Amino acid sequence: EVQLVESGGGSVQSGGSLRLSCKASGFTSLFAFSDYAMCWVRQVPGAGLEWVSAINAGGSSAEYADSVKGRFTISRDNAKNTVYLQMNSLKPEDTAVYYCAATRGIDYYREYAFYDYWGQGTQVTVSS
Predict the structure, then answer these.
(1) Are the CB atoms for 20 and 7 separated by under 8 Å?
(2) Do 54 and 70 contact (CB within 8 A), yes or no?
(3) Residues of the chain with pLDDT > 90: what percent?
């Protein structure tokens, strides 16, 4: 069973930066981390999930929600089974619990419902 563990959340002032990491484990001899597309999704308390960004299995293609485009960068290191989310120019409206999620396949989806494996989340709080 694939397991995902996020880290790197915390509290920061508006305009600051954070880098989230998501370490994956539990892969089989048939499928490795490099066989999974990954995404980041966030949730504000009392609100629904918001897809933030995704990256394909090889790391050659990525996409972002309009709300974070130009400020966030997703990347992955397949040798380390880790995906990252570099968040710059943070705003109070970025405050949320951030989850990473995985789906087996080369290409990513913008719809978070297509992702099968989820981490426990990490809290990001941006103060004004």
Answers:
(1) yes
(2) no
(3) 95
Measure the N-to-C terminal CA separation of the chain; round to a whole number of Å. 40
Helix, strand and coil percent figures for the chain, each rounded to 5? 5, 50, 45
Per-residue tokens: 2: 């694939």
Residue 28: predicted pLDDT: 86
Find all residues with CB under 8 Å of 5, minimum gap 6, and list them.
Answer: 22, 23, 25, 119, 120
Residue type, 5: V
For 25-82, write each residue's pLDDT tens digit: 999 889 999 999 999 999 998 899 999 999 999 999 999 999 999 999 999 999 999 9
What six digits make up the tokens of 92?
Answer: 């109070």
Phi first, then psi: what are they for 25, rounded to 5°? -150, 175
Residues in the chain: 128
Q: What does the pLDDT read at residue 29?
A: 84
